[in-house]
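Can you give me the bound-state structure? Components:
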Amino acid sequence: MTTAHVQGAQPAVPLAPARLARGIRTPDGERFLAGLAGQKMRLNGCAAAAYAALYANVDVIAAYPIRPYTAIMMNLSQFIADGILDAEYIHADGEHAQLSAAFGAGSCGARAYTGSSGVGVTYAYEMYSIISGARIPVQMAIADRTLDPPGDFGSEHTDALCTRDMGWLLGWAATPQEVFDKSLIAYAIGEDPRVLLPQMVAQDGYFVSHIAGEVEMPSADQVDAYLPPYQLPFALDPRRPVSHGPQIHPEQGPPLQLERARAMEDAIPVIRRKTDEFATAFGRQYPHLVEEYLLDDAEIALVISGGHAVTCRAAIRRLREQGIKIGMVRLLWIRPFPSDDLRAALQAVKAVGVVETNLGLGGASYGGILSLDVTTALYQAEYERPLVTSFMAGLGGETVPVAEFDWMAGKLGQALQRGRVEKATHWVGFEH
Amino acid sequence: MAHEVVRHNLPLFDEEGRAAATDDLAGRDRHFLPDFPGEDPYAAGHRTCAGCGPAIQYRWVLKAAGHDSVLAGPTGCMYVANSTYLCTPYTVPWAHTPIASGGSFTSGMAAGYEAMIRKGRHPGPYPNIIVMAGDGSASDIGLGSMSGALYRNHDALFICYDNECYANTGIQTSPTTPYAGMTTFTPFGKAIPEGKKLAAKNLAKMMAEGHPHCYVATTTVGYPTDLMNKTRKGLNHVGAAFLHCYTPCQKGWVYQTSMTVELGRRVVEAGLFPVWEYDPQQREYRYFHPPVQRPVTDYLAMQGRFGHMLPEHVAALQRAANRNWQDMGMDVPASLREGEDPAHHERLSEETYSMPLNRGVGA
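Here's the bound-state model for the whole set.
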């Protein structure tokens, strides 16, 4: 069936009356944020996410406890108890209810915030497609946790990656500062009328969520200027009635799905713009979609996402001292997948190793999830494609020490010498 | 400073209000209640079945609530039959929710409006926030979500439109399907002659007992003023309110389509669906005592879903009805006690049963 590109998300009815008013902060909140402006605080990733939600002046928070993300919600409940944040705090009866409540609040035009970890993320699975299909830009914080079995608190990216095809913007932050910044950037992208998509801001459980780092606190005015009041063009508002989520006939499916697929593509220029606007407003410039680390003359490169990139950089600096031409690409966003930027970053590289801190059982690589996207992106390259392999590392929340990155570099070096990879997936620590 | 959240207070209708009749184009009497609002935020033109009980309830609830309302509808027949892409019967904002999200999505709507009004982001009063969930949603897959919303006491009206089955998917048993009710998941046969072997879940009592701070009531489509007043009382109650409404499904229950409202009265008169109101201030139940008490056979005989019942099954339902009468503080007449004996129904099965179709004024 032939379908036309449906431009953006055009509401079928005139826009609802504006809700342009900035949400009122409490007097204690104003004083608290004024005192923070310009300060550097030592916060772990959970606290950094909570502070970002405080600055974003969220209207509705839907909480349910599960380690390790719980501390985000503990921080937020304290802000409310102290009168610093005026928001409705919903003690949901499970993650499905959390996401549903955030969805309901967002559908009415309230800025909604929620989060989860591990099996909590998958318990809510029904909601992901529904929320993105309804184009409600709620934000969900994820501190990664291994899926059961066995019961394990440690970080593994499989929880958030399970949702990667559900139409949410999804990216990892590697430090508490980046968690804070990315939470604001993600709201700005997701709420942009050209995008209107929900966002997952993920961080590694414990490695980022529970290790303190320095976080610069902006002023409330800076944040308000960067992140304007949330304005849903088709809110559930009695002043301008709309119906959300009706039944469709099969022939109405393709254009709607195409529109949602295009929203992901259309998000990429908005990600670039909002990342740059953030740099102008706050003085911290992040790469738009991929971080290129020591790639200029690199022959081999590791592709990674999340907190293990910090160790990876250190390993690469050491390997460079030994004369090994290695670099790193860190994916700041997994959805939309930065195919163009990844291809541009790796155009001079001869062998690529994808570091998988996730489990994709029985997939094409018989290893992880990320390498499938990386390989597809590289397959479309107009230059001579690099060799690609992948490394299963850090599963169950295990650390990925420098020695393991050294081992991966060795495998990439061997592949370069042989002109082919030994296999699609290496299980680090189980092979010689 | 935070803005004050101003809430509606809707006046109640006179229980003994006026009735009127007018001729329609074909010269037939059309009865109507002239004191009810003319507005219909649930407009005509949807695809519900002829004689649909939930559609009657939807119309009366939204008539009572009026236009400053926001409505959610979890998956169910009233989702599929009402909303078709690019067409809607709702003149108030409406959103579909997943079937398990009736309570939780509505919690989010209520929380969103509380926060937005307080923070100066929505002018005007707090709207009437209503969810109408089917019995599968409210008493089964979304029970936890519904209970969570009542527990958290969001200012919203949570309604279960109860057609005693998963009708949308082709009439499967739900927890509110009565004992012996035939569904496609509880067919009758040689090995299981009664069809459904389990007694129904008492959803409304569970909600009232488990969330004693909430306004909880039951009603049926047999009593329009009662239904609309309980809707308004639920909306006026500051906090969570739960309304359990009996709404016949002609497709699932197999009865003449004109009998929907009649069934809504007979189920009460047969003692099978007690109509009551729970007052959270006094923590007490106020039961409606119907002016007529009937044997359950007066109710069962109207519906094909009960056509397979054997005398012992009818007797079991009469026993259940008689316990209900006692719970409601009503005497159980000797004629109804006799119905607890299967032999009573053996004798009845020899007689031809004629269904009184016209109840006349005031019955």
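A couple of observations. Chain B touches chain A through 53 residues (CB under 8 Å). Residues 358-363 of chain B have pLDDT under 50 and may be disordered.
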